[in-house]
Amino acid sequence: xxxxxxxxxxxxxxxxxxxxxxxxxxxxxxxxxxxxxxxxxxxxxxxxxxxxxxxxxxxxxxxxxxxxxxxxxxxxxxxxxxxxxxxxxxxxxxxxxxxxxxxxxxxxxxxxxxxxxxxxxxxxxxxxxxxxxxxxxxxxxxxxxxxxxxxxxxxxxxxxxxxxxxxxxxxxxxxxxxxxxxxxxxxxxxxxxxxxxxxxxxxxxxxxxxxxxxxxxxxxxxxxxxxxxxxxxxxxxxxxxxxxxxxxxxxxxxxxxxxxxxxxxxxxxxxxxxxxxxxxxxxxxxxxxxxxxxxxxxxxxxxxxxxxxxxxxxxxxxxxxxxxxxxxxxxxxxxxxxxxxxxxxxxxxxxxxxxxxxxxxxxxxxxxxxxxxxxxxxxxxxxxxxxxxxxxxxxxxxxxxxxxxxxxxxxxxxxxxxxxxxxxxxxxxxxxxxxxxxxxxxxxxxxxxxxxxxxxxxxxxxxxxxxxxxxxxxxxxxxxxxxxxxxxxxxxxxxxxxxxxxxxxxxxxxxxxxxxxxxxxxxxxxxxxxxxxxxxxxxxxxxxxxxxxxxxxxxxxxxxxxxxxxxxxxxxxxxxxxxxxxxxxxxxxxxxxxxxxxxxxxxxxxxxxxxxxxxxxxxxxxxxxxxxxxxxxxxxxxxxxxxxxxxxxxxxxxxxxxxxxxxxxxxxxxxxxxxxxxxxx
Length: 681
Prior knowledge:
The chain is α+β, with helices and mostly antiparallel strands. It contains twelve helices and 38 strands. The strands form nine sheets. The chain has an eight-stranded mixed β-sheet with strand order 31-32-34-33-35-36-37-38, with helices on both faces. Strands 8, 9, 10, 13 and 14 form a five-stranded antiparallel β-sheet that branches.
């Protein structure tokens, strides 16, 4: 946390203009002010928040304040409406307004007059304006479904009608004499979703118009709104099966829309999140990130949406589009040089342009933020052995030149090295299907660069713990600074193997979709093959192997231990999905489509049908207040295990959610896991 706070303090100062680097000119400092989307903090006014209260995974209620840096005043947002805490406060581009939400309505705070007005006045609690419902927040990674126009005259927002969405409720035990209940609208696979529409509020007329983006009232998602520099409203429209993604360009005055861009597939899901990376140029043209030809690549399109040319080579997945320097026609982006590494590249998109240029050195993870004029870059680099290093660079002619180190965390790096913690080794493992898996091995004893054991200080082979997530398009095997539970296990004398099975990210579109429409089986085959391969090494005791997973990983742990040929003596499943019909619509249908059209896939993926095949010692952990993977999953699975006469261990955490961080729960859970492993291995 200290590392992050140090950097954020420096970065905030740079963005706000109160950081005073001695060797930068005023013009150079100005070029840094516009890094990212912190425009509001670089002018007279800035937003501050405090006393946050968590709602779900991303959403927070908080006390928001507008700080006038000229008059040195601080005014609370929402106070004019009688609100203490509000959510999702966003300042307009001209710095004159702050849009914010309270309950299910949108409001505007006017800085010029210190007044506040209601944009929407929904008294029906099943109508939500401008903010995400549970599903949009959890599965589309957003809380604020509204966006200011570039001229600050209009506010676009998504309206959600949840009337037909079924409610899920759960007991809250707390410390009261009688338990209470909480509930939320939670659409499960194949069940009704919220009905979505897109509206625009006009600041001058105070009128609201509904955009013509869903003329046939289809079951659609609108997970993103964005304005072009020219003032056109862009609406991302995704069909329910998430096999089609369309970008609509809307005229906010006439409400008429036309199709600007479309991707569609009958074999795979289409990744909506790629839209977040699109870069719009001043002439209306744009750079899109797409995986339509098998790899995530950058494509240049004209203002009418027509593709001009591909900008990046095949065989490598792009992971972020950072910035476009229009003067020299150069795109800056991040890509997976190997599945486990990330580098920053520059590529010219002039006619006949050369190949991309790699700007970064050092094996690990490089990320960046660019100033608006692309003349400055702040790079973050970290790896297995290097904590986050932040460096300011000058950018010119597709080359970078260091200006200063902002934070190198040298003391932390030295202290970590002094502890002689074993360094993870990146390895590739055969899966028995003619393919290789990306994996990471950690041994308590020292290893050489090839991953061979130098000395076995324990005097005998180690028990092995396989850790994984295994969900579609996910990755655990990454060369990054991540000091988590696996290091505790190594300190306890366990070897740890982390594996990315088929369906993982940054190996091309076909690999990402290996498990499409049929979750569970291929991942289990890969985990078994990986464990058997490592278990054959002399430093591993193949008779003492365990597997651990959380959420999707918990599901896959139980699925794997239900295979007749699995090698695991013990397994731990934390907050596991046990039947995909019980999980939410957007995530499940993205990879499985609806149960109505893929009944066999759902049947074969269900753990409830595999309880009789479970073997080995099992510990199941769940929070009873989990709003994401409901404890219902575990309860139904327990019923199936009992009927199959299967014994198991169980750990419940009353009223805690999917993350299990309330009170002393995280510490208690880790100790419970270690005790279980020590007993069984």
